[in-house]
Amino acid sequence: MILGVVNEKCSGCRTCQALCSLQNLAVWNPKKAALKVIPRFPKPGEYEVGVCNQCGVCAKICPAEAIYRDRDVYLINEEECTGCGLCVEACPNNVMVMLGDMKAPFKCNGCGECISYCPREALYDVCGGDKK
Amino acid sequence: MIYGYNQKLLRVNLSTGRISVENIPDDVVREYIGGRGFVAKYMFDEIPKGADPLGEGNKVFIAVGPLSAAFLPSSGKIEFGAKSPLTGGYGDSNMGGHLSAELKSAGYDMIIIEGIADKPKYLYIDNDRIEIRDASEYWGMGALDTEEVLKNELGEEFQIATIGPAAEKLLKFACVSHDFGRQAGRTGVGTVLGSKRLKAIAIRGNKDIKVFDPEGLLKKSKEMYDTIFSLPGFTEWAPYGTADITTWVNNVGALPTRNFKHGYFKPADNLTGRDIREKILVKDKGCFCCPIPCGKYSKVEKNGNEYYVEGPEYETIALCGSNLMLENIEDVAYVNYLFDNYGIDTMSGGGVVAFALECCEKGIITPEQVEYKELKFGDLDSIEYLIHKIANRHGIGEILAEGTKKAALVLGKGSERFAIQVKGQECSGYDPRNAAATILAYMTCDVGSHHNRAWAITYDVEVGRFEVKGKAEKVIWMQHVRPMLDTLTVCRFPWIELGFSLDDYPTVLNLVTGFNYTWEDLKRLSERVWNITRAFWAREVEDFGREYDWPPARFYEEPTIGGAVDGMHISRDTLEELLDRYYSLRGWDKNGIPTREKLEELGLSYVAESLGL
Ligand code: SF4
Ligand code: SF4
Ligand code: SF4
Question: Which end of chain A is more exposed for a tag (fewer CB within 10 A), N or C?
Answer without folding.
Answer: C
